[in-house]
Amino acid sequence: MFFGVAWFFATGSAFANGNFFVVKENCSVPLYNTEDLKQLPYYVGHYGTSCRKLMSVLLPGSFLELISKNAKGVCKVSWLRREDKTNVGYVHEQFLGQCCRQVQEKDVKYEASPMPLEEIRKFFARCPGQIPYCWGGNWEYEIELPQDYGFEQVSEDPKEQIKEEFVGMPYRLRGFDCCGVVYYVAGGLLKRTTWGIREQGKLLRCFDKKSKEMSREELAKFLDTLCDTDCIILRGRSEEDIKRIPEYSAKNIGTDPGHLAVWYNGGVLEFRGVDYGCEYRKKREEVLDRVMRWIKLVKDSKNDQCDLRFIRWHPELLKEEFKKFFPQEK
To answer: Residue 287: in which H helix or E strand, if any?
Structure first.
């Protein structure tokens, strides 16, 4: 097994506070928001798993700074990113030992590596039906976890019993949440949350509460201008909206106040949740229905900041405009 009794890592100075690490090529490191890795509640649905303690999966080339390590081998780290250095989380020391290598602070770099468009298209094509939903997930392959991780199966709704067919099913750390899939193909170019991505790239269009009503024909013409990998981001719905409007429920959109879908091959690709998994809509009327529904949700929201944004970010599409929207990239 990847993690077993044969695991070895020279502790000592390597685990000194303030040391820096980089995730190796073809490796990934799950980052949690708790240091109690023996008490991780999770939920299994028809099309994925959800562990709300998972913050993100660090991709190859991601940098970490070690803050501290407790007696159980759990490391508190700062996930070093260009826009801020305060993303603090917890990883098992075995991931630092086998999936990372130590580097000097002067070698910490922030270079994004987006997939080429053609490679992304092939990847999107195999997502529906093949790659599950995973809360906090942004990695295509299953990640083996150390044996001393502890998981407790729970229901998404405390009032509901776990469905009999799911009892005892294991937590699988594989797959994507709604914005995790675009973070993965963007190779670190984009931020990890819907709130962050909505402020990046080229804004193609924004629908808010003050926007003029648009007919289906007008919307269809606009959608025809979209390109593969363009993002559709719904953000700003309130807790009141979620309770008041059935279509805002977790089962219809997702569990986070933000939601992201990706334009691909004339349709909409989205990782919606454990009960829906990855869905792809290609039929013209279904796509129009979906986008019109999001626009209506914005109009009906009690939150004045709620909007629906269409963002273009891929360097092959932005071409000479890329440096304008991502000035820190080469």
So the answer is: helix 284-300
Q: What is the DSSP string of 121-140?
A: HHHHHH-TTTS-EETT-EES
Whether the predicted pLDDT of 109 surpasses 90: no
Q: Is residue 113 part of a domain?
A: no
Q: Residue 274's Cα: distance from chain center in Å?
A: 14
84-98, 143-157, 185-199, 229-243: range with highest mean pLDDT: 185-199
How many domains would you assign to the chain? Answer: 2
pLDDT higher than 80, residue 92: yes
Residue 5 counted as domain residue: no
What is the H or E stretch that residue 118 is in?
helix 117-126
Helix-strand-coil split of the chain, %, nearest 5: 25, 30, 45
Q: Give the DSSP H or E segment for 93.
A: helix 93-99
Output the DSSP codes for 75-90: EEEEEE-SS-S-EEEE
Tokens 């790239």 sit on residue: 201
Range of the domain at 299: 180-325
Question: Which of 121-125, 212-216, 249-253 shows the lowest mean pLDDT across its residues?
Answer: 249-253
List, in order, residues 6 or more apart from 174 with CB less than 8 Å away. Answer: 131, 132, 134, 137, 139, 140, 141, 142, 143
Nearest-CA neighbor of 31 among 180, 156, 162? Answer: 180
What is the full DSSP assignment across 153-195? E--SSTTSPPPGGGTTPPP---EE-TTHHHHHHHTTSS-SSHH
- For residue 298, the SS3 value is helix
What is the Cα–Cα distance from 36 to 45, expressed in whole angstroms? 24
> Which of 103, 129, 164 delimits the end of a domain?
103
If one compares 16 and 152, the residue with the highest pLDDT of the two is 152
- With beta carbons less than 8 A apart as the criterion, state whether 261 and 32 touch: no
Same structural domain, 99 and 188: no
Mean pLDDT of 40-61: 93
Do 189 and 301 fall into the same domain? yes
Q: Are residues 191 and 302 in the same domain?
A: yes
